[in-house]
């Protein structure tokens, strides 16, 4: 397995590459994986989300256990929404509550598929070859907004706020997703622990079927959906999502008076770059 990460350097530049033994072996970019020859110590770098997706495709009802609990039929095609590119933050970055929203904010620990090359109308083999690797997603939702308007469920608004999509800490290529589990803790207390093998649609099936609907570009992320144990985050609480073999993605929901510091603001801006 190869571990790929993205960082902000001391001069504010963004670097991407393969990480080994505490060093970043720099590559030109995710879609142009050509080594630059630069080798940098990760100690001198600030971690960012491992990619800057143009779009995040977020699945709903993609686990048999959750479908059974909700008494929902298993879908014949992935059910999905789109999260905004500006919602992306990396490991350690702060989730910010929207100024106009005082309601419930919900976490969802998920596996993320990272696309490595343009993919459209792909069969299963082409779809599998288009997967660059896997990361961790915290699909955050302003839950009370979903049905605020009885005439129009607001999925994209509720899930698309700035900082509402944690990604990271790395992309791992060669990851055996079928053997993996998602473990989510809230302030250190386990809330989710479910097997990835319970997915309705495998990663290759997701990429293939979604590519029939829209073109997937390098760096785009498919959030594979979540299973049992979704819950709310109180202001000041920390959500950590762990998938062994990929790492842990940890983010804290800022207390309402916490406006953040200049470093956090710079990291948030870099994540979207």
Labels describing this entry:
273 residues; mainly beta; Fumarylacetoacetate hydrolase, domain 2; metal ion binding; Fumarylacetoacetase_C_sf; acetylpyruvate hydrolase activity; 2-keto-4-pentenoate hydratase/2-oxohepta-3-ene-1,7-dioic acid hydratase (Catechol pathway); Fumarylacetoacetase-like_C
Walk me through the topology.
Elements: E1 2-8, E2 14-20, E3 23-27, E4 35-41, E5 46-47, E6 56-60, H1 64-70, E7 79-83, E8 88-89, E9 94-95, E10 105-107, E11 109-115, H2 124-130, E12 131-139, E13 141-142, H3 155-159, E14 165-173, E15 181-186, E16 189-195, H4 203-210, E17 221-223, E18 231-232, E19 238-243, E20 247-253, H5 262-271
Helix pairs in contact: 2-4
Please provide a written account of the structure.
This protein is mainly β and 273 residues long. It has a single domain (49-271), classed as Fumarylacetoacetase-like, C-terminal domain (Fumarylacetoacetate hydrolase, domain 2, Alpha-Beta Complex). It has five helices and 20 strands. Strands 1, 2, 3, 4, 5, 6, 7, 8, 11, 12, 14 and 17 form a twelve-stranded mixed β-sheet that branches. A five-stranded mixed β-sheet has the order 9-20-19-15-16, with no helix packed on it. Strands 13-10-18 form a three-stranded antiparallel β-sheet. Strand 1 (2-8) and strand 2 form a beta hairpin. Helix 2 packs across helix 4 (203-210). The longest helix has 10 residues, at 262-271. The protein is globular. Residues 55-253 form the Fumarylacetoacetase-like C-terminal domain. This is 2-keto-4-pentenoate hydratase/2-oxohepta-3-ene-1,7-dioic acid hydratase (Catechol pathway). InterPro entries: Fumarylacetoacetase-like_C, Fumarylacetoacetase_C_sf.
């Amino acid at each position: 397995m190869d571990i790929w990460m993205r960082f902000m350097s001391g001069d504010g530049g963004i670097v991407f590459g393969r990480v080994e033994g505490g060093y970043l072996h720099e590559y030109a970019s995710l879609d142009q994986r050509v080594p630059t020859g630069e080798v940098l110590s990760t100690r001198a770098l600030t971690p960012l989300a491992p990619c800057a997706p143009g779009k995040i495709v977020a699945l709903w009802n993609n686990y048999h256990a959750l479908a059974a609990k909700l008494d929902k039929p298993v879908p014949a095609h992935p059910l999905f929404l789109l999260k905004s590119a500006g919602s992306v933050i990396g490991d350690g970055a702060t989730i910010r509550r929207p100024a106009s929203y005082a309601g419930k904010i919900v976490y969802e620990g998920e596996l993320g598929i990272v696309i490595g090359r343009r993919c459209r109308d792909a069969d299963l083999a082409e779809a599998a070859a288009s997967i660059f690797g896997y990361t961790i997603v915290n699909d955050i939702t302003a839950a009370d907004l979903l049905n605020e308007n009885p005439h129009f469920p607001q999925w994209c608004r509720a899930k698309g706020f700035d900082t509402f999509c944690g990604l990271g800490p790395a992309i791992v290529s060669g990851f055996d997703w079928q053997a993996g589990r998602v473990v989510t803790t809230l302030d250190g207390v386990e809330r989710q622990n479910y097997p990835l093998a319970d997915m309705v649609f495998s990663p290759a099936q997701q990429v293939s079927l979604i590519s029939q609907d829209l073109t997937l570009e390098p760096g785009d992320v498919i959030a594979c959906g979540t299973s049992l144990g979704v819950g709310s985050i109180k202001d000041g609480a920390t959500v950590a999502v762990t998938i062994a073999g990929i790492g842990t993605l940890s983010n804290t929901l800022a207390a309402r008076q916490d406006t953040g510091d200049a470093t956090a603001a710079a990291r948030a801006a870099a994540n979207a770059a």
